[in-house]
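Exercise 7. Predict the joint structure of the components listed below.
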Amino acid sequence: MVDETELITAAQAGDREAFDELVRRTYNDLYTLAARLTGNEEDARDVVQDAYLRAWKGIDRFRGDAQLSTWLYRITANCASTHLSRRRRLRTEPLLPGLDPVEFRHEAQPEAMTETTLDLERIARAVDRLPAKLRSVVVLRDVYGLTHESIAEELGISLSAAKVRLHRARKRLRDEMFEEGRAAHAV
Amino acid sequence: MRYEDVADLLPGLVDGTVEVDLRTRTFIESDLRCQAELARYRRLLRGLGALRTTYLEPAPGSLAQTLNALAAEGERRVARSILTGRRVAVAGAALGGAAVAGAATAAVMVARSRRRLLAG
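Solution:
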């Protein structure tokens, strides 16, 4: 298997095959992020395609001081933000319901299969139910680990707005997860 | 200080997004309700972090569609660069032609003015 750095260098030199290989390696990851940000499959497909087109056009600008995945996450976040605001202008109905949790596929990572993963589907559903603005921030920060600064930049919001949204999102999730849990135990 | 005074800080305090003064920190560390609440937030963050390795299955054909779009973009780029190259060649030829014509005109004018001077 060719090393990622070699593929990046080749892609930067204009090798489309090398870039295609990078797409194949990262597609599911980026698609998942796009789906979590947009809340539905169709939009996720469009966003992820747009993200790769932008990445291909801008691969020269990737300097390697961050991981390729982080660079791609930022592009995807920006594309999703543009896509969602365009959609908000075109449509007035609420977002489509969240993705069906049965589509989830856990990577075989035994260390991740802790007690918390028992609640993964519930957490994912709770995240899907958040308003898009809160969901974007919590997904990018708490799931994908982007910095507050990167999130603010890619979503086109201020740093303080990013932090406020994160705070609200966590609070809502906490209420939903633990109040729901308490109610379920009470039954 | 009461739990209610600091409850709103806890979602940010759990990962250092929010910083608090020493007095508040001391209270939070000693208050059982705050500690229980922080534990819930920590658990929530662990769960969210675990979503990172939980992939969603794209619809069949999505990857191929993206690769095709990239191929089409590549072809457009090549076509654009060829067109740009042709335009540059045409513009260069036109400029070259204009320069030659200009030089010829100037030579004729200089020759005429010399002849006039000699005749005069």
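Discussion. The longest helix of chain A spans residues 159-186.
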